[in-house]
Each structure stands twice: as structure tokens, then as C-alpha cells.
Amino acid sequence: MALFKYNGEWLQERRGGLIGAILNSGVARNEQGSRVARRGRRFPRNFLKPRFFRWLLLLLAVLFFCVFATFVLKLLSNGNEEEKYLPLSGEVLEQVSSYDAPLTPPKSKRRKQHFPCEVGLAAAVDNILEPKNYMNFTQFSLGYVEREVNPHANSPQSRFGGYQTLNEREKSFLARNQTIHCGFVKGMSRLSSPGFELNENDKAYMNTCRVAVSSCIFGSSDFLRRPTSRLISEFSKKNVCFVMFVDEQTLSKLSSEGHTPDEKGYVGLWKIVVVRNLPYLDMRKTGKVPKFLSHRLFPSSRYSIWLDSKMRLNTDPMLIIEFFLWRMRAEYAISNHYDRHCVWEEMYLKVPLSSELIRQCQIYFRACGSMKLIDLPHVTN
């Protein structure tokens, strides 16, 4: 600021007016602005110091170590758990010893697209004829255990399959006249029930079936798929029994979806048969009863076809019987799995195995060509 001399003294010069005010305010703004700018630069300098980065990296490292240690401990605990393995026979062990295979388990396959194959069915039901005999039957009679008489069965609860001994199981494989355990075994108590209880009217109806097509839905695990009526001949509609086994829960769900049985118990071609007192808590196990014991549920049937609930019947059942049984001179036909063709591979995927048993399964993968399930078009006598 300028100085001037007045009466022998040096005094500061004060600028007044508009120019002075502008200059003075400009200086104040410049000083204040410079201070603010300095404060703004000082904050990121404190925030981005190397010490902050060191603490941040240390924290991330500790978190990563904790997660990694938890994963390793869980992996080790799962590896040390005891598992129950399936015993193998001596013949299997002898054959295993002659092979060598890596311990790497088979890689999971990607989902593939599968399309229906063409089957040379007859044109119409009128053109088929049942052969007089197959020339490969073994004549013997079977009886079934109706009530448990095994003194070793000390359990007060009845078991659907009964209390079969190992010796009885081995003898049941022989084709001879005998009485075997085959489900529906009542307990030693007169009040016990094996489960899978059916209405007496439904039992009387199933006793009259000569050809049966059956399926089941338990636990409302699926929706009802009706057979394509226009593809079923009038002969089959009158002479074939189409039976769908359901429980009360599934029946309630079907009714809510509009599939209410009529006064005769039919929904389309399906005869709805309600099963009460299911023998197993696992619905998959209960579903095996009508699947494998159709000869117990339909004692008078000559032929039976099991249909998975996820499939829809799109052809006449008599044409299926003619092609896969009569034409092939076979008593039994089973479809090949669309993706897995080896019994050992199926066991490997569904049963917890030890490393040694995994190695044995891999060995048998090489021999799966001779262990394939029977394909329907190639059923042998």
C-alpha cells in the first residue's frame, strides 16, 4: 500500500470510492480463495498416505486368510467322515485285480438334447396277433407271504417288505415253486398294517384287468398328463386298464387344478386310485411299489406297462406290447437310459463311494459294453 508524507509524518494511503472497494474486496477474495485451495489440497494428502494403504492391505489379507482357512477345514472334515460302502463279491474283486485305472473320477457330462427314436409299430391294433407260445417259459408257481412269521422280527412295527432273511432272499431267485416275500407283508400283530392301503372297490376293479397301464404321483410332485385319447384305439379303451395311483395330497392338488375325478373315479382315461397309509416317508420309495410290484396290484393281468409320471402316452398300448414283446418273443422289456448305459456308472453317481470303490467303478467303465441295460428294440429271449 502506498505511503505519503503529511506534516512531516508518513501515513498510509487509503483509496476510497468504487475503485478502492473493488481492489480491497479482490484482495480479500484472493486471500480467502488461496486459503481454501490450500485446505482442499491438504485433505487428500492426509487421506492418501502410504500408512492408510498398508492398513487396508493388511485388513484384506486377514479376511482372505480367514475365508481360506474355513474352506480348508471344511474340506478336511468332509474327507475324514466315515461312509458306508457297498460290499463287493469275491468274483468282482478278482476281476478288479486284473485291471488298472487312474483314480480320477469321470467328468460330468453336459446336458444333451435327446430326441425320440422311430419305432416300427404296427399300423393298427387290428393287424396284430398274439403268438400262441414263446417256447421259453419255465413253469412254476409262486406264493407270497401275507403275514410275518419270522421270530427274529422283534420290532412291533410292521415293515412293508417284511423281515426277510438273507437265506430266504437267496432262495427267492430260483425258478421253482415257493413262497417268497414280495411286499404287502402284515406284521405279527393282527392290528398291524403294511401300508399302501387301497379301497376294496379299487381292488376289485384291478383284479379284473388283463392288460394294465399304470403310473403314480405321490406327494403332489408332478402334474397329471393324460394319454392322447385320439391315438388310443377303441379296443384298448375298452380292454386296457389305465390306472393312476395318487395319495390324498396329490388328489387335492389335482382337484384344485381342475382334474376332479368323475362319479366313476376317472380323469380322462386314467382311473384314479387313492393310496392311503403310504409305507415310506420317501415318496420315491413309495413310487417303487406300483412300479415293480404291478403283478401284486394286478394279479389277473397278462401284460402291464409302467409309465413314468413325467411322460405322456402317445400311442396305443397294444401296439407297444406287440412290438417289444410279441414280435421279439420276450417276456420283459425295459427302456435304455437316455444318457447313462452302465450299471456301475449309475451306482457311482447315486451312492457315496470310497476312493477304492471309485477306482473299481472306473475299471468297470471299460467293460460297460457288455453290461448295458437291455434296449427295447433289442430285447432278447
TrEMBL record:
Q: Pfam families, from UniProt?
A: TOD1_MUCI70 (PF04765)
Record keywords, A-Z: Membrane, Transmembrane, Transmembrane helix
Domain annotation TOD1/MUCI70 glycosyltransferase-like: ranges: 143-347
Membrane-crossing ranges are 52-73
Query: Coiled-coil annotation: which residues?
Result: none
Q: Which InterPro entries match?
A: TOD1_MUCI70, TOD1_MUCI70_glycTrfase_dom
Tell me the protein's name.
Answer: TOD1/MUCI70 glycosyltransferase-like domain-containing protein
Which organism does this sequence originate in?
Answer: Gossypium barbadense
Higher taxonomy: Eukaryota, Viridiplantae, Streptophyta, Embryophyta, Tracheophyta
